[in-house]
Amino acid sequence: MEPFKNKISPDLVTCLGLHIERHLEGFDRASYEAAILGKLEKLELKQRARLIADQTGKILPETLDAKFHILRSILHPLENEGVDRASDDKGIRGWGMMPLGMVVTDFGLEDFDKSFALLKEMTKRATAEFEVRPFLDRDQERALAIMTPWVKDDSVHVRRLVSEGTRPRLPWGMRLKKLVDDPTPTLPLLEALRDDPEDYVRRSVANHLNDIAKDHPDLVAEIAKRWLKGAGKNRQQLVRHACRSLIKQGHAGTLTAFGLNPPEIRVDGPLVRTPAVTYGNALSFEVGLTSTARKPQDLVIDYLVHFKKANGTRAPKVFKWTKVKLEPGETVSLSRNHAIRPITTRVYYGGTQAVSLRINGRDFGHAEFELVMDRD
User: Fold this and answer.
1) How far apart are CA 29 and CA 313, in angstroms?
2) Quick one: fold of 4-257?
3) Spelled out in words, what is the top-level CATH class assigned to the domain 265-372?
């Protein structure tokens, strides 16, 4: 797989030089490209974008209006609503927006109106989710006032920017501490976008709520309960995706919002069928569940593998399993194989590990097994 950093490529630099030359009198294209290309190869993605932004900022005209005029002039005409679009001889789009957006934040923080007008155009050609964040950090109320009408914009990219750009904990983006502490200013925006016709927007709303859930789980549980009333399929999917972390954690309020009450069951197990698991093979276990309730009940069943850490302690990792509906007195038997093989996100240590169950947020059972690391 090609390194992600190559999204910001020498070809993009050459393309930028070409378009700037068309609109900036006296531009020394050769010097501009040489200043970037001589350093680009050794840099990672964001460092590459930063280098291009710095060099572009140096050669643009002095005034903000003139700077922004050049940036707007080199944008690609609006055609093809896809996301990952390459720049070409018609203009800059796709990953080219990353360094150009940095130029906007470098010079435009004192003029919200002009900067947001340009970022709105840029986001139609990729995304400006990172670039609106310094403005939100500088003056949250003013930035949100500008973005609020965008929830009704014709462009799916602009509507998504309202949700994605204001996420409190956007990956790769600066953390918006004010919204981490108090997310309520963005809730009306999420309400307005929750039934957007585009899944691209709805998934952003779900991820935004998942961000909020990390600091305000009870608030998201309350929102989930309210949004699920009379919800269609799309909104149900949105809410479930938004609450994915809370459901795995067994957050009581969230489970109640989804109609998952404390389980009334007898649990036999988990019974480990592979008391010694050689690294690269699978842990095998089974469980028996018997309903003790007087009416049917829905059960969401997850399992936890308690992996041994370097210091000898064990840390649980939750894995999704299955859903069942049990009638009164009904018994069901379930089995599972869990592969223990190399993955980039975990280092395994031999010795005693364990497996347990989480059913509707409640923990049941605990069975140990030995992980044997084959060093040959």
Assistant:
1) 59
2) 1.25.40
3) mainly beta
